[in-house]
Amino acid sequence: MNFEGRYKRNSETFSKIDQLKFAASTVAIVGCGGLGGYIAEEFARIGVGRLILIDGDRLEVSNLNRQIMATELNLGQYKVEAAQERLGIVNSEVRIEVVKGWFEEDRGAELFREVDLVCDALDSMQARVGLERVCHQMALPLVFASIAGWFGQLGVSLPGDYSVSKLFGRADRGVESIWGNPAFTPAVLASLSVAEGVKILVGRQPSLRHAWLQVDLQTMEFERFEIQY
Prior knowledge:
Blueprint: H1 16-23, E1 26-30, H2 34-46, E2 50-54, H3 79-90, E3 95-99, H4 108-111, E4 117-120, H5 125-137, E5 142-148, E6 151-157, H6 163-168, H7 176-179, H8 184-201, E7 211-216, E8 221-226
Parallel strand pairs: 1-2, 1-4, 2-3, 4-5
Antiparallel strand pairs: 5-6, 6-7, 7-8
Helix pairs in contact: 2-8
């Protein structure tokens, strides 16, 4: 790896050993819309060696306001294919694998083979809970985030925690469909997700285990809540 070139600006934050751990890691990102697209881009830029992108949707005009993979030239393309093309230009050293389909719980063992970290960028509460079940069955750490309007939530669920189930287990769908999403909310929550994710990849303790972070970008208030076990 060229520590004095591409990753030079990482070196004051991460050691060479950390950078090598990134290169040897695989991150699966479930959902490649507004939130997942930014997550994928940041992991690619930081030097994660392999990304698995899972999404069954195609780009449409309403995605242009917030989804980093969406342009006026690629409308109608599968989101994961657009991401694969863009990330290949951003960092050709990263291996990008795509799954053009929706996450299905019974395919978890197949989808997450040889994965080190899973990021939840879904908008279905039921799918979120199912994703957490799969991660726990496979002993995989999960970073989860949700966004709507000015607001976002973020947390970490390590095997056995079931934080997603405790927070979202009784809900059907989030308020994103009512409040929508401007460009800045997915960018902020994605960055926070990646910050927690890289800690896990290099062997540090994440800050939001057994907790979740409530983000209010209108008032610029960030509040942490403990999850009772």
